[in-house]
Amino acid sequence: MARKFTAAFDLEGPLSPQDNAYEVMHLIKDGSSLFEVLSKYDDYLALQNIPDYEPGDTLKLIVPFLLVNGVTELDIVKVSKRAKLVRGAKELIKWLQEDMWNVHIISTSYEQHAYNIASQLGIERNKVHCTHFPLDLFYDLLNETETELISEIQNEILSFCSSDGCDNLGIAKIAAQLNQFFFEKIPTTRINEIFKMVSVVGGKRKVEALMSVISSRNAKQTAVIGDSITDYKMLHKIGRAGGLSVAFNGNMYSLPHANIGIACVDIRPLYPILTEFRAGGLNSAFNVATLWEDRFSEFISDSSLIPKHAVTPELARFFASAPDNTVFPRLNVLTSKTDEQLQKIAAVHARFRSLVRGQDTALLG
């Protein structure tokens, strides 16, 4: 049977809770604070429509700091090995593959992390679209002057944070200094050659990776699942083309561009949505989401009331023995929601995002 329907997953969030680059930066003294500043700066740049800059390019911005602090590809692998899978991810991928879905991962993640998680999920490497990252090769391109420049800007960035951290840091306060470093100083050094070698798969590049897998005419047979600023263009593209775009524990960068939202600690409730989408198109998927949205209180009180088309037998047993209601998905059709309604939905997603990914990671764009 031909695999006509495609499911394309973002990796960090829907499939694994670890933000690998953030965790790798913890190997550096005060690296978490450094990453948080650069992540805020990345979000800022991504919304400025700067040519050739895409959401997720944080993974490019941090490269000089990885190098000056001696981080290697092996370190990335070791950090990745600590990563867990989102609850239910392995089962969901297995079910989809058994149903002959064409399952792909489209991720900003460095290849060392993406291939590790894909292997655990049983997804072949040729179906993983991620950031090629030969970090160890970059060391030969730095000289002492450039190393000193990077160390100087690292100390400057960290000076922006107070003793309470970087949570309340206004990006306007630091954008000018960082612009000078990344767009004026770096282009005059060999660090710029390294930047040219790192093409982070985020934003528009995620769309390009997806379209290399499907043709435009197959968008209506495509489902994309994401959660953050790096996914919104992919979600928007497929949603506008009549496909299924799902924000799983999404933030306000992703939710307005998805047509269905799922907030849950377990990703398996996505399966009935995908099954109905494949069987009857977008409206059938919407019907299941609306059913959960309208009757959520009833289903929590008595899970036997969930209609069979909106749940699998395994999920029905899971819900029946649930220790608490966090396993019950909060589903919403997002296409007709007002800004006020989206804000309320986003608050629910934020709670589950923190439960799944941890509070610090959940706050990243």
Which helices and strands appear, and what pairs or packs with what?
Layout: E1 6-9, H1 20-25, H2 31-46, H3 58-61, H4 63-68, H5 73-80, H6 89-98, E2 102-110, H7 111-121, E3 128-131, H8 135-138, H9 144-159, H10 171-185, H11 191-197, H12 204-213, E4 222-226, H13 232-240, E5 244-248, E6 260-263, H14 270-280, H15 282-301, H16 313-320, E7 330-333, H17 339-357, H18 359-362
Parallel strand pairs: 1-2, 1-4, 2-3, 4-5, 5-6
Antiparallel strand pairs: 6-7
Helix pairs in contact: 2-10, 5-7, 14-15
Provide a descriptive summary of the structure in words.
About 50% of the residues lie in helices and about 10% in strands. The protein is of the alpha/beta class and about 375 residues long. It has a single domain (about 1-265, about 335-365), classed as Rossmann fold. Strands 3-2-1-4-5-6-7 form a 7-stranded mixed sheet, with helices on both faces. It is elongated and about 65 Å long.
Oligomer: single chain
Radius of gyration: 21 Å
Distance between the termini: 39 Å
User: How is the largest sheet built, in terms of strand order?
Assistant: 3-2-1-4-5-6-7
Helix/strand class: alpha/beta
